[in-house]
Please model this.
Amino acid sequence: MTDVFGALANPVRRQLLYALRTGPLAVNDLVARFALSRPAVSEHLQVLRQAGLVREEPRGRQRFYHLQPQPLAEVGQWLHPFEHYWRERLRSLRDVLDEESP
Model:
């Protein structure tokens, strides 16, 4: 099984997940959104499937992919301790912008 973090490390795979957020899509629909060959998109989908981030549903001759968001909770749990850091950085940025405003 592929690690969720490893699967998310690739920007194409993140874009595929983003495309699937509104509902299942056929492989051909996903291929049309990228400047990649069908085999390349299929390889990325396989990595996402192995990580448990998508599931494949055969419908006749087509294959539809569905987002499986549960493994993303692992990412959220990992990022949670870093929220304080980003909030502080954004607060500092807001303070600088407020100082520069007329």
Observations:
- The CA atoms of residues 48 and 90 lie 32 Å apart.
- The two ends are 55 Å apart (CA to CA).
- The longest helix spans residues 83-100.
- The chain has a mean pLDDT of 90.
